[in-house]
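Aggregate trends can hide what the representation actually does to any particular protein. In the encoding step, the backbone of a single protein was reduced to a row of integers, each denoting a local shape. The record that follows shows the chain in one-letter code together with its fold in token form.

***
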Amino acid sequence: MGVFRDPWRESAGSTSRVGLSGIVARFGEAGEATAAIAAARATLAQPGCCGRHVDAIVIGAADAHVWQRDPERLGADILDGLGFEDIPVIGTTLGGHANMATTLRVARNLIAAEGASNVLVIETWQAADGSARLGAVSLLVTEWEPDFELLSMAQAVQTTCGEPAVQPRLAGYRDVMEQVLARSSMALPQVDAVFLADSCEGAATAIVGALGLPLQRLARRQGEAATGGARLLQDLQLHARALARGARLLLLCRGGVHHFAIACRKSS
């Protein structure tokens, strides 16, 4: 197993308050930037994001085949659609349906290491309903009063992972879960809600139970079908009103051999 370690700097001034705001999901035709543009516009129109200066854009692709033109045109088309220019655009891929963690990590580190304040994140995926639609989720990673404060994050690759069976995947989940709980100084009983997205539909209850997490705190699926990390963020936003301020949340995801865990806290 390969583990990507992150020296999370929880006490380094404002970087300890980096978090997520304005989560929005949209759908459009595959191969077009319309869904990504619509989601990004909706994010930037949210009360907590409106008027914020965007320092950079990070675009992730959970499915490599969704963009049918030259890949570099996706960033250019999104910039044109948003009316932006002279702004850094960074792309991430290779993480499959767990690619969202890489996209968020890059955005967060632009703030922690390079002095950005607000980074627009867009993750695209192929719709899971059998259609040719392209989905996109957008949010702002920011150090200014985020909706959800990022506490820690971990990623791992479990190359012996088997699709049909739950047991081979548990090592990857357990590894990333234990890392984020330790870095966040959080014990399992302190987790108020669990969000899980696995490539094998229907496995959530078995996985959560095997990991020793309380089943009654598993957030049930809502809304339109999405995949992987994008699904997690959709569900997080859909459940937001039901979550108390200060609620401690654990997000778990697997896409193929890639696993990630995120610990965060509702801050608004």
Notes: The chain has two domains: 2-146, 149-266. The helical segments are 34-45, 72-82, 100-114, 167-183, 204-210, 228-238.
